[in-house]
# Entry
Amino acid sequence: MKEKICIYPGTFDPLTLGHLDVVERAAKLFGSVIIGAAESTSKNTILTAEERVALIEESVKHIPNCSVEIFSGLLVDFARQKNAEVIIRGLRAISDFEYEFQMALTNRKIAGNIETVFLMPGEKYSYISSTLVREIAKYGGDISEFVPAPAVKIIKSKFR
# Structure
């Protein structure tokens, strides 16, 4: 699988240590990991797409086979444009599985040649979510245990 290109899509608002752990695991398995930051999302993001990309790029600069791009539209179309054969999805807990399973089957129906691979972050990150990080930051809590160092300052600035 080392020569294959994979896409790791998400909102990443913000990128968490759990996300970063999944990226590092994917980078060991695949020749190229493209992190796809969703440009438009139904979620109310606190960071712009450009801010999210800059944050992710700073956080993954130690991973040589990783790049970051903004995408819009269908994920499978983005994957096709990038010649990716695999979509990476992180699973933290059983509660993530039902939604992710539904998305994987839908993507398979649309683009049967693109596989979905589920990766779990390390146990110490299994409870972290971007939503949780935003909530903690909103009330002035310390988020440094949940996000890469470059994220702390920018997230705190959004809630001042």
